[in-house]
Amino acid sequence: MEVNKIYNENCLQTLKRFDDNSIDIVITSPPYNMNLRIRNGSYCSRQIVKEFSTKYEGFDDNLPIDEFYELHSNIIRELLRVSNVIFYNIQIVTGSKRAFFKIIGEFSEQLKDIVIWDKGVGQPAMSPGVLNRQSELILVFEKENAISRKFSKFKFDRGTLGDIWNISRGRKIDKSHGAVFPEKLVSTILENFSDEGDIVYDPFMGSGTTAVVSQKMNRKWLGSELSPNYCELIQKRIDEVQGGLF
Fold first, then answer.
1. What is the CATH number of domain 5-242?
2. What pTM did the predictor assign?
3. Which of 44, 115, 118, 129 has its CA 20 to 30 A from that of 166?
C-alpha cells in the first residue's frame, strides 16, 4: 500500500486493495445528499435543486434514499475491516436523515460515541417550519470494545475534551466546492486520537483537508476522490505544504 497518495476512484475500489487493519484512523465527511427532496410526502429521486449547494463538482448529490443508505452501509462496513476507529462526519438533511438514522441502528454495536460539531451559525432554513442547521454530527465507530466509552487510543487528559466542538466552518478553497472540512476539525481529531506516523484515510477526500492536515502533523495519509479536478487541487495543496507555503 503506497501512502501519501490520492486514488482517483470510488472509495470502495480503493478499500478492496487494503489489507485488514492496515489503517490507523479514518476521518471523512461524505456528501450530504443535499439535492434529494420531498414532494407530496415522497422523495423526488434525481431532482436537482440548484439553489442548494453540493459538496462536489459535477456530482448531483441526489441518490435515491435506499441507494444512499446502501452505499454508506457498505462503505462503513469496509472501513471497519481496515481500521479500528472511524470519524464519520454527517449532516442531517432531508436527503440523508432516514438513511443515517437506519445506519446508527445497524451499526449500534460499533458506534462508540457521537460528537456534535457546532459551527457557531445556523444557515437559514429554505422552508418554513424547518430548524436552522447549526450543527453536524461526527459518528465515531470503533471495531474493538465499542461497548466502552473509553477510546483504545487517546491523547487527551481526563476531563479536558468535551463532546461538543465549537469550530467555525472551513474557508472556501475552490469555487466549485462550497462545504470545506475545516482544518481545525481534522487537527482536533489527530491531536487527540492518533500518533505521528499513523496512517490516516479519507474515502471522500474532496478538496483534501484531511491530507493537508495529516501532512502538516507528520501523519501518513491516503485518500479516494472521484473528481480529477479535485485530485489536482489536493496535490497542489500538498505541494504547498511540502514547500512551506501554507
1. 3.40.50.150
2. 0.91
3. 129
